[in-house]
Structure formats: structure tokens, C-alpha cells
Design goal:
With 457 residues, the protein is α+β, with helices and mostly antiparallel strands. Helix content is 44%, strand content 24%. The termini are far apart.
Length: 457
């Protein structure tokens, strides 16, 4: 079934009513089928049209390109109208048949039977048409849902691919981290073995140090005993010499000078530079070094037992270690928070001890050049410290009128005592059995270091 119409700017007109230069014509052919409507647009042959009509067809093409959406809606509405017309025609035909049937009631039974069959077939055809329409709508809905499902599927596939890439990246990272962890574990195992070996070396070295300390203490005891014996012999020789001088003064005859036995070479080498051998001592006429050691006053100086290091402390809160041969600074400790008043070395020379206005006694390690321990307990300035030679202990005294004995191995207080006057200086005997303290009231006290009892005042 074909319908021909003309489309103008003001709507749809037939071929007779459409006139005037203001209308734009376009020949349309619409092929309407029973199951649906198919539109077929045809353009008349422009070669047969006059020039003015060709011009308007060109204008119509431009309009259709710019307003194609509105034209499609017009065609859709028209197709719906044609479907309704089709249905009305079918209804008219059915009514016409009924009228004919009613009119021809006197017709033979065969015609009535045929008309009845035609009516049934038309009803079945209408039902089939409706079913086809419903099926078509379902198919359209299912197609729409299928398209939506395809879109969702593509989105899910995109998300899945992104998740797979993310998982792959994470798996690569996990593998790299696992490799690094394995390398770190291997490094830790190697370091653990090295630490174990170092601990074993440390334990063996500590044993050797203990043995050496014991040997040093024994050697020191021997040297002290030999020095005491030599002092006694020199005192005896001096007495004999004095007696000889007295005899010379009484007698006029000359007397040969007294001779002494030579000192053993080993002992003489040890005694060189000590207070016992003062035969070559003299007052220097000029200083060997001039060292600007501290920014404030230098409050204390101390040599170690071997004379290889010199410690100084001062009002700038510093303890400095110097090379006495070159006058160069070796190291410094700045852990005290207030001026440092006193300093001393251990017998081995591996530790240096300082007392300060900050009421603490601090122990420093010469090898690591770091603070090893801080003793607290004084209630006033620590004015003096003295380290024992035969046992790892240090004595301190201060303005709080207390004397405290500290253990350098356990790092705890070992003993203490009080006195009515503040302590400003102290020193130990070579055998560490007696301690001499000087007080601000002008007194000197000698103490027993085992019980901190006074020998005399």
C-alpha cells in the first residue's frame, strides 16, 4: 500500500492544495506492510524539474539535515495514524460482511458456512497479529535488556581487566618484597653470626683484660713494695751518711766518702721521672706548651698513670683529653650541664671520671669517646674525685659534706660517710687503704677506705 504526500514548512498537504513559493516540496513514498511500517523516501528526478524547483529542493535538503529529528517524529506520528486507519478499514470490512450476512440470510447454507469460516479466520488472524505485536514488544524489550546486559558486561570486563592488572602489579610487588625480605633475612643471619663471633671475641678479650688487670695489680704491688724497701734503704744510707758527717766534724782527720750500692736497672728505669728520683729535677725557665684549653677557668688537671694522656676540666662544662707530648687535643666530653670541678683517670687509663657543679659524677669511655654512666646522689657540688688503683672504684666528695664510694663495674654506690664540713680535695695512698680529704674548715682527715673510719684528724 503506497501513500503519497507533500511536506511543507507548515505541515502536510496533498498535491492539489499545496501551492505557493513559500512551500518546500518533497515527494515521499511510504510502503506500509501488515506486520509493520517501512518508510521509503524517494526524490523526484531533478533533471525533469525547472530550475526554481531544483533550488527549492536544495533548500529542502539543507533543512532536512538541520531538522532531521523533527521530520522523523512527523513520520512516526503519520505511521501510527496509518496503522489506526488500517484497523478502521478492517473493522469496516467486518461490519460490511456482517451486513451482507444479515442481508443475505436467505443465502444457501454453504455461503453461510463459508462466511462463518472467513470470520473465524479473520479473528484468528487478528489474534495472531496481536500475539505477534506482543511478541515483537517482548523481543524489543529483551533486545533492550540484552543491549544493557552487553553494556554492563563490557563495563564488568573493563573492571575485571583493571582488577587483573592491579592484582598482577600487586603480585609483582609481593614477589619483589619477598625477595627483599629474603635478602634481609640472609643479611640478618650473617650479622647474627658476626655478632656472635664478636661476642665470643669480646668475652675472650674481657677474660684477657681481667687477667692483665690482675697482673697489673700484682706488678703494682710488687713495685710499691720495692719502692718502700728502696726508700727504707735510702733512709738508712742517709742516716749513715749523717753519722759520718758528724764523725768528720768531731775528728780532723779526713774520712773517705761513703759509697752506695747501685740501684737495679729495672727499678731505676721505673723510678725515672718519679718523685723519688729528684736528682735531675729543676725549675723550668720557660713553658714547653701554652694551651688555650677552656673558654672559662681551668679548674683541674690530671695525668694518667703512664703519662700518655692529660685531662683538664673547667667552667665551660667540658672535659678535654690532651697529648702531653704534642699539646694537641685528642677528645672532649660535653655531657656535664654545669662547670666541671675535678677529674681523674682509672689505673688502666681506659676511663676518665669527672665531678661537676651539676651534682653528678660521670664516667666516660676513652675508647668509644662516649658517656658510660652517671652517678647521682650528691646534694651539692662535687668538688673532688679519686680513682682507686687496685680495685674498680672511685671516691667522690662535695659541698654536701658527704664522701661516697662508687663501684665502676656494677655502677652503684658501695659505701658512704658524712662529715660536718664540706670536702674540697682528696687523694688516696698507693695501696688504696687510706683516703685523705681536705675540708673548708681547714682540717685534713685520713680515712680507712674499707670502713670509712677516721685514722686521725
Amino acid at each position: 500500500l503506497y501513500f503519497f504526500f507533500f511536506q511543507a514548512e507548515d505541515g502536510i498537504r496533498d498535491s492539489v492544495a499545496s501551492r505557493g513559493l513559500g512551500d518546500v516540496y518533497k515527494r515521499q513514498g511510504i510502503d506500509a506492510e501488515y506486520m509493520g511500517i517501512r518508510f521509503e523516501t524517494r526524490m523526484t528526478d531533478k533533471r525533469e524539474m525547472p530550475k526554481w524547483l531544483v533550488y527549492y529542493h536544495q533548500q529542502l535538503d539543507a533543512r532536512n539535515q538541520s531538522q532531521s529529528v523533527s521530520f522523523r517524529e512527523l513520520i512516526k506520528n503519520y505511521s501510527e495514524m496509518m496503522i489506526k486507519c488500517k484497523l478502521l478499514e478492517e473493522q469496516n470490512r467486518a461490519l460490511e460482511r456482517e451486513r451482507l450476512v444479515n442481508k443475505s440470510s436467505s443465502a444457501p447454507p454453504e455461503m453461510l458456512h463459508l462466511n462463518e469460516q472467513v470470520r473465524k479466520l479473520e479473528q484468528e488472524l487478528k489474534g495472531t497479529y496481536k500475539d505477534n505485536q506482543a511478541s515483537t514488544m517482548q523481543i524489543l524489550e529483551l533486545t533492550k535488556k540484552l543491549n544493557e546486559s552487553e553494556t554492563e558486561k563490557k563495563e564488568l570486563e573493563g573492571k575485571l581487566s583493571a582488577a587483573n592488572e592491579y592484582n598482577t602489579h600487586n603480585a609483582t610487588l609481593i614477589i619483589n618484597k619477598s625477595q627483599k625480605i629474603d635478602e634481609l633475612e640472609m643479611t640478618i643471619d650473617a650479622l647474627t653470626k658476626e655478632i656472635t663471633a664478636l661476642k665470643e671475641q669480646k668475652s675472650s678479650m674481657e677474660k684477657q683484660i681481667i687477667e692483665l688487670n690482675s697482673d697489673n695489680r700484682n706488678l703494682t704491688a710488687k713495685i710499691i713494695s720495692i719502692k718502700q724497701e728502696m726508700v727504707e734503704k735510702m733512709n738508712e744510707a742517709s742516716d749513715i751518711y749523717q753519722k759520718g758527717l758528724e764523725m768528720l766534724s768531731k775528728k780532723s782527720e779526713p774520712v773517705k766518702p761513703m759509697t752506695f750500692e747501685p740501684i737495679p736497672s729495672s727499678l731505676a728505669q721505673y723510678m725515672i721521672g718519679s718523685s723519688m728520683c729528684a736528682t735531675h729535677a729543676s725549675i723550668p725557665d720557660k713553658p714547653k706548651y701554652k694551651i688555650v684549653a677552656h673558654s672559662n677557668e681551668a679548674l683541674c688537671v690530671k695525668y694518667d698513670n703512664l703519662g700518655n694522656a692529660l685531662a683538664t676540666c673547667g667552667g665551660d662544662c667540658l672535659i678535654k683529653i690532651w697529648d702531653p707530648k704534642t699539646g694537641k687535643e685528642l677528645m672532649k666530653f660535653k655531657d656535664h650541664t654545669k662547670p666541671v670541678t675535678c677529674v681523674d683517670f682509672t689505673f688502666e687509663g681506659n676511663l676518665v671520671v669527672g665531678g661537676s657543679v651539676d651534682k653528678t659524677v660521670r664516667v666516660f669511655d676513652m675508647k668509644t669517646q662516649r658517656l658510660k654512666h652517671t652517678f647521682t646522689g650528691h646534694q651539692d657540688t662535687v668538688n673532688a674525685v679519686a680513682v682507686m688503683t687496685r680495685q674498680p672504684k672511685v671516691v667522690s666528695g662535695g659541698g654536701d659534706r658527704t664522701i661516697k664510694l662508687w663501684d665502676l663495674e656494677k655502677f652503684q654506690i658501695a659505701n658512704h660517710t658524712n662529715y660536718p664540713s664540706g670536702i674540697f680535695s682528696m687523694d688516696l695512698t698507693p695501696d688504696d687503704n687510706m683516703l685523705i680529704t681536705g675540708h673548708n674548715n681547714g682540717t685534713l682527715i685520713i680515712w680507712s677506705t674499707t670502713k670509712f673510719t677516721k685514722y686521725w684528724k
